[in-house]
Amino acid sequence: MFVLQVVIVLLLVVAAVVALVLQVRHDSTQEATNRSLAVAETFANAPGTRDALSSSDPTAVLQPRAEAARERSKVDFIVVMNTDGVRYTHPKPDRIGKKFVGTLEPALEGRSFTEEITGTIGPLVQAVVPVKADDGKVVGLVSAGITTENVGGVADRQLPLLLTAAAAALALALGGTALVSRRLLRQTHGLGPFEMTRMYEHHDAVLHAVREGVIIASGEGRLLLANDEAKRLLDLPRDAEGRHVLELGLDTDTAALLASGRVATDEVHLVGDRLLAINQRPTDLKGGPAGSVATLRDSTELRALSGKAEVAREHLKLLYDAGVGIGTGLDVTRTAEELAEVAVPRFADYVTVDLADAVLSGEEPEAGTDLRRTAFSGIRKDAPLYPVGERIRFVASTPQARSIGTGQAVVEPSLREAPGWLAQDLERTAQVVEYGIHSLIIVPVRVGHLVMGVVNFWRSEKPEPFDEEELALAEELVARAAVSIDNARRYTREHTMAVTLQRSLLPRNLPEQSALDIAYRYLPAQAGVGGDWFDVLPLSGARVALVVGDVVGHGLHAAATMGRLRTAVHNFSALDLPPDELLGLLDELVGRIDQDEAAEDSGAAITGATCLYAVYDPTSRKCTVARAGHPPPVVVSPDGSVEFPEVPAGPPLGLGGLPFETAELELEEGSRLVLYTDGLVEDRERDIDVGLELLRTALAGADRSPEDTCQGVLNALLPDRPSDDIALIVAGTRALGADRIAEWQVPSDPAAVGEVRASVTRQLTEWGLDDLAFATELMLSELVTNAIRYGTGPIQVRMLRDRSLICEVFDGSNTSPHLRYAASTDEGGRGLFLVAQLAERWGTRYAPTGKVIWTEQPLP
């Protein structure tokens, strides 16, 4: 209050000073304008001014007059000028002859005017008056003015008096405020106005909001105050306050107690049909005013409220437990079972959940009343309700059908008197009623407009039927569960789609080949679909490529990306590229995929992909391996020893900029080459080093087939609930015997072609393949001739007798021949076309020192 008073006085003083200064300045300016105009007009019309302007030296005549007039009139300047604005007079002689600063046009038109400008002597107010000839023509101009500095002098002289008066007013206000504040502090015990207001508002709110009656009586027994609850409990009249307690129409005992002011603790009095517990204390125990305060509680209502509060608490606890216990997984059936279990026996004696078959498979159900019993829970197992798994078609009269049709909950208080429900199955419903189930609530499992089924709450133990409050609780309970069921349904649909996509992208059958005896396992994760993949790719020259990879993440995006990478590996392997070059192309592809995803801002860019690519050649028993961030391969020798060969790791796919390196392994016949993904050796509870050591132990041992090895590894390392996909390939190596390989060195001489044909014929006869002699001679003759004519040495021919007859021509050139159609006038160009027609497959692959052109023919 004190500070507020000071601030108000200061604001008033400041406002008065500002107003006075502005008023004085306005009056002074107006006075200066009038004086300047009067002086200018007087000088312009003075005798001799007009004649002096037409004299030969106006300055000599007018300057002394102007200065004398200026000093007498108390203006700052009088300037006489010609019609061009050139000065004849000025207080400062050095300004004579220069151009006048100001507006001249109105005066040249014959009108006097005033203005405020900044002139040669500073800011000023000036008037300009024309000097006219007898015919009215303007022959000169006179200007008089006063500077702004002189205009404000009056306000400055009055300011000290005003400040002195303001200081005196401020001192008087502070003194009065101090006296008032001191008295207020003494009366309010030091509380300020804000605290006093807040305390009053709080006390008033509490007084009228509490569920206890409060009565304050004076020492004479008059009622001073009664809150709303006291008026209700005692049924007091509207004008009760101010009247004596004995005059309020209360019973004798209660009125005597309230009027006496004596101490009372939980005294019970019958007031009407209420039992009131009254507590009373006097108000003058610590020097307060005489009187008493009494509080009243309705013990009858308290007991009823206590029972309701307990029921409400149980209901809230049930809803809390439902929120925690329902939807722990993403399985529709299990979620329905959790709903049934949480409601028995706390809410109902039996609970059944009926859902549409489409919901169980992850789809949106169509409108209809055909449901399948999905979950059941009850206090006993022998209730004659439909069993779990049975398909139920509810007739139109049943409350279940009405609930599905309207999307609203339905309560049947008495099943004996529910003909619509009884008509569902006369024999079964009679058994249900005979069993003792007498009341039913049906709540639709609904999310938005989608109705997925119904939940039935059955009561048998309590004799009371379900009421409206319990119906509301059932709706809340099912509404929470419906969200979890819908989430599980959506997950089931997405999971089914992802699994279908993933299985369609993985190899269904291994291709036929003779180089490796292969066994494999693919195990998806328990939750979600991952991007692990593998493949077996036959190559030219009886070679076989093994590939295993892993796309980080789960879901449709990971599965789709895995399919794209597997397709890319198929295409790149058809080019017969070395493993390191193939991984380089795959790395560029992943980088482009990431860029496309980032450009679309889909948030689904690949966060990591690894791959291992190995090529095994049964003719040399050599295996060339390269890996991109993938776990290393394992080699199990025929004697059962296990080795992790050194293969450069390389960066994961998609990083770009770093090359990949290869390692060449020589494998004994009967060795087992093991490729896998990190899900086999690493999980949340096991470090990868521990997993690799367990893998070593599981692989140790001789005389085990690839199939047995796969099963043994999974038995030893497979976790109970795999958190990641697992891909495992075990390849037993085979060698192509020397008796199935034929090689010839060919000189760069066209005459050597005939010798090659003869050698090939003898070898085919030895292998019992005379039927292939003609076509083989023709193809090799063409290929060797091309190598001699267009290639460089050394030239070599090799034939392999595998699942097909393979012919290969080596030369030192890197130029690949191209198949074309020769015109009828061309002398050449038909050789490769002939080779393509005779061979089942043919192609070119490059080697470090040249190229190989190969053909394959099926064996007869």
UniProtKB/TrEMBL annotation:
<keyword id="KW-0808">Transferase</keyword>
<keyword id="KW-0547">Nucleotide-binding</keyword>
<keyword id="KW-0378">Hydrolase</keyword>
<feature type="domain" description="PPM-type phosphatase">
    <location>
        <begin position="513"/>
        <end position="733"/>
    </location>
</feature>
<dbReference type="InterPro" id="IPR036457">
    <property type="entry name" value="PPM-type-like_dom_sf"/>
</dbReference>
<keyword id="KW-0902">Two-component regulatory system</keyword>
<dbReference type="InterPro" id="IPR003018">
    <property type="entry name" value="GAF"/>
</dbReference>
<keyword id="KW-1003">Cell membrane</keyword>
<dbReference type="Pfam" id="PF07228">
    <property type="entry name" value="SpoIIE"/>
</dbReference>
<dbReference type="InterPro" id="IPR029016">
    <property type="entry name" value="GAF-like_dom_sf"/>
</dbReference>
<feature type="domain" description="PAS">
    <location>
        <begin position="201"/>
        <end position="266"/>
    </location>
</feature>
<keyword id="KW-0067">ATP-binding</keyword>
<dbReference type="InterPro" id="IPR003594">
    <property type="entry name" value="HATPase_dom"/>
</dbReference>
<keyword id="KW-0597">Phosphoprotein</keyword>
<dbReference type="InterPro" id="IPR033463">
    <property type="entry name" value="sCache_3"/>
</dbReference>
<protein>
    <submittedName>
        <fullName>Serine phosphatase RsbU (Regulator of sigma subunit)/anti-sigma regulatory factor (Ser/Thr protein kinase)/PAS domain-containing protein</fullName>
    </submittedName>
</protein>
<dbReference type="Pfam" id="PF13581">
    <property type="entry name" value="HATPase_c_2"/>
</dbReference>
<dbReference type="InterPro" id="IPR052016">
    <property type="entry name" value="Bact_Sigma-Reg"/>
</dbReference>
<dbReference type="InterPro" id="IPR036890">
    <property type="entry name" value="HATPase_C_sf"/>
</dbReference>
<feature type="domain" description="GAF">
    <location>
        <begin position="331"/>
        <end position="495"/>
    </location>
</feature>
<dbReference type="InterPro" id="IPR029151">
    <property type="entry name" value="Sensor-like_sf"/>
</dbReference>
<dbReference type="Pfam" id="PF17203">
    <property type="entry name" value="sCache_3_2"/>
</dbReference>
<dbReference type="InterPro" id="IPR000014">
    <property type="entry name" value="PAS"/>
</dbReference>
<feature type="transmembrane region" description="Helical">
    <location>
        <begin position="159"/>
        <end position="180"/>
    </location>
</feature>
<dbReference type="InterPro" id="IPR001932">
    <property type="entry name" value="PPM-type_phosphatase-like_dom"/>
</dbReference>
<keyword id="KW-0812">Transmembrane</keyword>
<dbReference type="Pfam" id="PF01590">
    <property type="entry name" value="GAF"/>
</dbReference>
<dbReference type="InterPro" id="IPR035965">
    <property type="entry name" value="PAS-like_dom_sf"/>
</dbReference>
<keyword id="KW-0472">Membrane</keyword>
<keyword id="KW-1133">Transmembrane helix</keyword>
<keyword id="KW-0418">Kinase</keyword>
